[in-house]
Amino acid sequence: MKSLHHFGGKALPEILTKEYPGRLFVIEGADGSGRSTQIQLLGGWLESRGFAVKHMGIKRSTLVSNELAKAQQGNILTRTTLSLFYATDFFDQLVNEMLPALRAGLVVLADRYIYTLMARDVVRGTDRAWVRNLYSPAIIPDAVLYLKVSTSQLVERNFHKKSTLDYWESGMDLGLSRDMFDSFTKYQRMLQLEFRHLQKEFGFDVVNANRGIDAVQKELRRRFEELLPKTD
Amino acid sequence: MPDQERKYPGKLVAVEGLDGSGKSTQIYLVKRWLETLRCRVYFTEWNSSLLVKKSTSKGKKRNLLTPTTFSLIHATDFADRYERQILPLLRAGYIVLADRYFYTALARDTVRGCDPAWVEKMYSFAGPPDFLFYFNVPLEVSLARILEGRPALKYHEAGLDMGWSTDPYESFRIFQGKIRDQYEKMRDRFSFISIDATQGIPTQQTIVRAHLEKAMDLSKFRLSRRSAL
Q1: Which domain holds residue A33?
Q2: What is the pLDDT of residues A18-64, one digit of tens each?
Q3: What are the DSSP calls for chain A, one per residue?
Q4: Looking at CA atoms only, how far is residue A61 from chain B in angstroms?
Q5: How far is A130 from chain B (nearest CA, A)?
Q6: From A8, A21, A224, B24, which residue has the greatest number of CB atoms within 10 Å?
Q7: CATH numeric code, B3-217
Q8: For residue A230, is it within any domain?
Q9: Do B113 and A79 touch (CB under 8 A)?
């Protein structure tokens, strides 16, 4: 039986058994990197192979997601509060949804994980060591694939999708520039730089996502395939 | 937190102690005293950020909170109050009075099974108080004060989420006993100013006031005439 591992410190008090036959796969990447499309395709592929799938993401907890969204609209959250709000949302899903799913043998597909949360916090000036501690009880995924896309591609895909740039995805709250396009480019570069740090530290795999949907999907399936529980 | 930010002209006074130790009464009396001296004073209470309140009460009402999320939601509440009120006011030269500080979280979260080192680091963005009064009371005394009128104990307040007992009063007793053990451990690690909370209210208040008066020049915190109006 597979056992759960976390990044550091004591295990969460909510972890009661050692038996977690499920798998945790994480897809990381900026908005416009094709994350959601790829995850959707992966979900279909897994289900067709007979695996039950549980989706997880950011700002999806029943506990704080509404309040977090509301507070963001008014942009009244300070750095640490924002960081802890996101951590609450994350651990609420981890404890109440992810752990039961892993215990029941499901494949959990996470649309971003602690890496995005940590990168966002650090570019906002939060202490790296503090953020590492915050997420240290999180479960170490079976695989993390980071969809890397050039900034110019990101801009193009974001405009293609919504014909406008998102306030938060442009990092407007950082005050890098009053110009949204300028801010978006700067913010995304900062995040990419932070992801490079994270990649070195946590050793996750980078997937070139500048390619077409099918090519990327093929690579993702190839990488996850060998990690799936064996079926008879 | 960079040391620079900790060099503020204000003073932070915090009180800690078991439910029923009388700490809230004492900090309220300190507030009244400082107000009559016309000092710049601000009072803040545990778990009172308006921003986070909705999530906390939703979680508590529906029993959605587990030890980890209970810990995090209270840290979020504290961070909001700390960054938007406590720290700016300290920098503006206020005496900030806090009814409970992060030691409450350390005690409760540890009892609920969270890693104490994790919790302590999580709260490291906040500096320690300048004065930390601990109202020390034997368990039986505080329990008697709280349970006298057989009040309706709230689910988390009674520690019912821990499953120690299905009887709220019994669960509360166990919970408070464990919290007290944690406070006892912290007394040595942090500089708690311990007050014997079995004494009469005015006696305790005299001790607290004397301590504060001796340690700081209250005239520095007087409101200027112009802001009196």
Answers
A1: 23-225
A2: 789 999 999 999 888 999 999 999 999 999 999 999 999 998 888 88
A3: -----BSSSSPPTT---S----EEEEEE--TTSSHHHHHHHHHHHHHHTT--EEEE-SS--TTTHHHHHHHHHHT---HHHHHHHHHHHHHHHIIIIIHHHHHTTPEEEEES-HHHHHHHHHHTT--HHHHHHHHTTSBPPSEEEEEE--HHHHHHHHHHHHSS--TTTTTGGGTS-SSHHHHHHHHHHHHHHHHHHHHHHH-PEEEETTS-HHHHHHHHHHHHHTTSPP--
A4: 11
A5: 7
A6: A224
A7: 3.40.50.300
A8: no
A9: no
